[in-house]
UniProtKB/TrEMBL annotation:
Keywords: DNA-directed DNA polymerase, Nucleotidyltransferase, Transferase. GO terms for cellular component: DNA polymerase III complex. Its EC number is 2.7.7.7. InterPro entries: DNA_Rep/Repair_Clamp_Loader, P-loop_NTPase. GO terms for biological process: DNA-templated DNA replication. One of its GO terms (molecular function) is DNA-directed DNA polymerase activity. It is an enzyme of class 2 (transferase). It comes from Woeseia oceani. Pfam families: DNA_pol3_delta2 (PF13177). This is DNA-directed DNA polymerase.
Amino acid sequence: MVINWLSSFAERWQTQVRQERAPHAVLLLGAPGVGKRSAAAWLAKSKLDPERASNLPTYPVDVPLDPDLHWLVRPEDKHTIGVDQIRALIGELSLTSHGGRGKVAVIDPANIMTAAAANSLLKTLEEPPGDALIILIVDRLSRLPATILSRCQKITIGLPDEAASIEWLDQVRPGMQWSQALREAGGAPLAALTAAEQMEATASLGRDLKALASRAVSPIDVAERWSKQSPALALDWLGRQVQDCIYRVVGQSQPGGASIIDDSVLQSMDSRNLFCYLDIINRLRGQPSGSYNLQLTLEGLLIDWAEGLVHCRRQDSDGGLWPLTVSR
């Protein structure tokens, strides 16, 4: 099924191609679940097999089976994309293309490259071999070196409005009430498909967070339960709740906001530390899940939440949560 909110992205790219101004290296930026991987697959197919490429990116992701496409992901037993993978990719790009239309490399996601891997890619980004197109999918922009950013054209894929998202979701999976799932997903339609499946789990997280505020449960017990979920589920959900709290504190309404935090809870907190708390969560979201002890990390986060964020400190300060985010 076509992803209609990517139409302006596709039109701009096709215009650049017609005018022979298409870049050789692009960064695809956007919220998780907005369609970056579908966009990358469409770019690859448009370059390698333009006669058969659809007018718009599609869902599910339609990765072309083409020997000139190299889609690089982390190995199953690793948390990062390493320098050896990048060197092998550069070697592949230097070979003659099979179809005569150049080669395409997709690094997915680029923000988990090691520093050595990123450094080894710099020269290739500046001077790609042959007629190569290098696509970097970025889930966490803050984790990408500035030297990589400066060598790529940035393409930001924005969120569609709520009405358009719900209309599209109704076509993909009719008969569901999508508003809540879309709010849980921060307004990203593809993430809403996953959120719909995870709503039972997030409902449990919400009950726990409310119970923490009334001291009806122990942060240690809640952390133990949350640690059985995927790190992405727990941290992404908590991050959205905190972000919505920040919007409310500054007197704004967040688009797609889904906060379950009562005003009375917010009033009892040191709201100045909400930014610090969100910063800690975002740093954790940008780390490979196996690089820290999830249960101890959640204990630190939830203890500080239960105590009103009075002890929250940034990483470069003494005390606070960071001593609890220990490696395994």
